[in-house]
Amino acid sequence: MFLRRISLHGLFYLLCGLLGGLYLLNIYGILEQPPVHEEAPSVNKQRQLAVRQAMQHAWHGYRTYAFGKDELQPLTQSANLRWGNWSISLLDALDTLKLMNMDKEYHEAKQHVRHIDFTKSLDYYDVRVFEMIIRALGGLLGAYELDPDPLLLAKAEEVGRTLARAFDTPTGLPYASIDISLETVRGPYRICLAEAGTMQLEYKKLAKLTNNREYWRMAERVSDVLEAGSRKHRGLYPMDISVLTGQYFESDYSVGAAADSFYEYLLK
Prior knowledge:
Blueprint: H1 8-27, H2 41-66, E1 71-73, E2 78-80, H3 88-99, H4 103-113, E3 127-128, H5 129-146, H6 150-163, E4 177-178, E5 190-192, H7 193-197, H8 200-210, H9 213-229, E6 240-242, H10 260-267
Antiparallel strand pairs: 1-2, 3-4, 5-6
Helix pairs in contact: 3-4, 3-5, 5-6, 5-8, 6-8, 8-9
């Protein structure tokens, strides 16, 4: 759903209307469902088992046909390297494997992390900065929170240091993608809101764990630029912004794709 020039008052009344409608539905029992914690423990155990089995099935397919590659292509039972051959599915799943007590799978995946060189990428693939921050850097930091192995933090810093090159712009906003095989950074100058503002959690956590304040300042600078450029706009932020000037383009307004994670990170 796209919203144009919605005012703060309009957004307030819209939210009030939605909440009021949900309240009325609840009064009349339309939304009433028994709380999960009041159901029989055996039911919850079955649900837990079903979720774990789904993860085991997905991981088995990836391990069999695409281990160490970026993605499994299930229909052809093959792998692709569309994220620069950084084993992105494996990194994204690390903390989930640990949370689900899939210890054998987790340790195998962690050992593979040791051999990933995050300073290199396939020459013909640009690295998508937004995706690498939330999946590679986020996956490694999440796993480190559950398993404080120095290897995980060292690799997280390697990712963070490599991607930090994308923020070497006149405004401090990151390029959407960079070719890390080149000495000079390049990338599209127009980026979406999600690409600009979905990095604070990972880089601030990395700053705290490594005692490197530069990562913190980098994240703060992005937030400052986004806020400064939005002052003439009311309500939602425009969806596109210039890396060179920090000014927003006259574009659609949305809380959907290309903007959703920005608002998610504001809450977090």
